[in-house]
Write a structure and sequence with these properties.
Structural class: mainly alpha
Oligomer: single chain
Organism: Vararia minispora EC-137
Largest sheet: 3 strands, antiparallel
CATH topology of the largest domain: Glycosyltransferase
Radius of gyration: 27 Å
CATH architecture of the largest domain: Alpha/alpha barrel
Number of helices: 23
Protein name: Mannosidase
Amino acid sequence: MVLTHLQNLTGVDILAVFKRTHAYDVFANRGLLVRYVLLPTSLLLLLWTILRSSTNGIPTRSRLFGPGTNQHVIYQDTPPLYPARRPASWKAAAEEVKDTFLHAWNAYERIAVPHDELRPVSRDHTDNFNGWGVTIHDSLDTMLLMNLTDTFERAVEQVEKQDFWLHPNKRAPFFETTIRHIGGLLSAYALSGKPVLLEKADLLARKLSPVFETESGLPQFSVNPTTGNVSDRKTVCLAEISSYQPEYTYLSKATGNPIHFKNADRVWRILQKADVSGLGGMLPTDWSLEKGAPNDDKLTIGAQGDSAHEYTLKQYILTGKTDKRLVEMYLRMTTQMITRMLWITPKRRILYPGASIGIYPDDHRDRTFEHLACFLPGLFILGVEALPLDDLGSIGIDFNSLSSDLNAEGKAAYQKLSNYKLSDLHRWAAEGMGEACAVMYADQPTGLAPDEATMSSRSTRWFDELEQWREDGRKGSPPGIEKIKPTRQKPDGLKVAYESREYVIKRKGYELRPETIESMFLLWRVTGQIRWRVHGWNMFRAIINSAKMQEGFASVFDVGVWPPSHTDSMPRTFFTLSLKYLYLMFNDDLLVPLDRWVFNTEAHPMPVFTWTEDEQAQLGIS
């Protein structure tokens, strides 16, 4: 049985090959000891030789974690170059991204449709996200932007069949379902004008509506769209209650149904009334569904809070820059981040966001650098582009008054910022964090960044160093914004000393994450600096070299080891975020102008609009 399995794996009749050798003739006439000891040993040695010399396309140095064999891996024999050679042209680079999308999509369509995701190693599928074909809904707008008309039409045929049924024993997570399914359908509707896409988005939103039937009005975590049964959680995290507002707002605008916007706006009003005077005005992580109030004092930049912070700015832009309450929330959050939550290492000057902190005066710091937090450089630079940071009075905001209800420490932070132009601070933070996120890719032999790293314990608060730079006469560039030289690990897996890299990898996988690529796109689009485009090109080449399979792409098990190992997963975000932002970054045509479109947290663009007077009256907007 074992021999048969090995023969199927290698495509070689191992026993037939062995019978042709002189060793077989000798061993066949010996005693039991020889037959049962030497013969199996010789077979194993022969098998090893065959595997080493086989020409049927098996990369012998690849290791896979999960079902399947290594014959599915496609990668170069040597680690990806850094920096990668420039593309022949940026137009050619954009076309290569499109080809990459088709390679991944054709594999998904061939093997996994109508299921949620492709498992590229085992060549199977998984229904890990309600079973409604999340990859389809998430990829529609990418197809449209790439002008893949035939592919889009086939995908719409799948959408038309969807009724969002779910087994009575299961529930759909509200926030995740909204940003992916509703967001994807709405964006594709905005780009194509196909009514069925809007109809399906509205249908799903109405099926999810029982989540709002709570005592406080904050949405429950999950709901069964078939039965209406909701989860019974007592608390929810910040991202779960405030990361659906752009989708529901645009849905109201597109359908004329005010209930969607009212459900979204109710939550904004609850958050704005919360007592966060001891937290610098920034919204904490955990919230009580019963009270509609904070349940803890933890502030986070990464997981559990990231998209909530992002949506304060994006909701403002989406609705024609008319609701200054959202700008005030955004400014409070970014002020807290700039003064307390950004850190810098002593030697390489890596400027990174700490994952979370506690309340004054304890102010403990978490030195975890999450890949998830690498959306921040893009958010900060988008704020520089969209807001009159040096003339907030022009939109009716008195920056100093934002600290009026804060404690002494909170007020002091605003006083310190008065020594700088606000636009400079936000741009420096964006560029410094952008370089930090990029070097986490460039340092690794795979060219891909780890999911989490623990940074040097000697890191200091960035704003403290900025203050020292100011007091010393502002000589040279502000700390942390210069390009960082990569310190790449050797391909043989030897570790570079912690002291030289100033971090250790905490979670070593790369799940085809898009956050850094998103920031490279926004930094390139806003500043026009070629370095961000080049960083994006290096990341794209690393993905091709380290993650490409015969069927799609696979998450990398350990970014610090070459050749790479893989997990049996191709997340839907690879289609909707990573490849979309890469395509837009390399394309010289301005396909999605940032003053006319807003990307939701899953990279689904929705058109900027303004409410009519009748709509304002109907929605109660003043």
